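Internal ticket - ligand job 277, zinc ion:
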Amino acid sequence: MIRVDLHTHTNHSHARDSVREMFEAGQAKGLVVHGFSEHSPRPLGYDYPVEYREHLASTFEEYIEEVRGLKAEQAPRGVTVLLGLEADWLEDEEAYIREMLAAHDYDYVIAGIHFLGKWGFDASAADWDALSFEQKCSHYEHYYRTMKKMAETRLFHIVAHPDLVKIFSVNDFRRWLDMPGSMELIREALTAVRDAGMAMEISIAGARKPCREIYPGPRILRLARELGLPITFASDSHATEHVAWNFEELARYAAAEGWTESAYFTREGMKSLPFLD
Ligand SMILES: [Zn+2]
Ligand SMILES: [Zn+2]
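stdout (structure tokens):
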């Protein structure tokens, strides 16, 4: 049974429920490690159609304090609460990201690639529907090239949803995977992730999204296993009912490739817990 969920959001960004409510939902699912990974502030110019920038800016310090408070409260009970962040990786904003990450003592930082250039690509199916297959392929390639650059900064602990770029075009993405060079590009990105001492997230959120497939899909999962990458488990929950949602399926999916433990990170470094009992 998976007892760690490292990817949960709160009402300090665009999620519905509070730190306390998300934590209690995790307790009801038997979590012994609950990682909070709120979205990060972003520089101006990187915007979603529905933007939560100002709300996050005004409550971000509260997020930090609430998670720290919960962490201190739960430690004597043997429950590990982690202060994390899902930081947007923006390849032209490394200085901003470095400064933002240095502002707090996070237990871990997840790198979320949601932007290619200034385009938040995971917000609108219509954006993708307007593209030709060739244009989509160039975005898939850009996504993995920027993942490699992200890992090379050594600023992060975990790569989030490692094929999020398929969200609105999964059939074309699979077609791209079959083309010469595609898997090699992914191999280079995941090798950089491994060499940076990072883990790869396996996220059930993909099963709830239009692609209807766990992030990452089977071919990329197999490649990650071959490369010897540690894994983390993620619900990417934005509401209590999704905390640790369908983790039984996630456990089967990872176990079928041979993993028996999932990683998590504290200020002391990487730790792991078995999930096959
Ligand atoms: Zn994300
Ligand atoms: Zn997330």
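Auto-summary: The two ends are 6 Å apart (CA to CA). The pocket of zinc ion (ligand 1) is lined by residues 86, 112, 114, 160-161 (CB under 6 Å).
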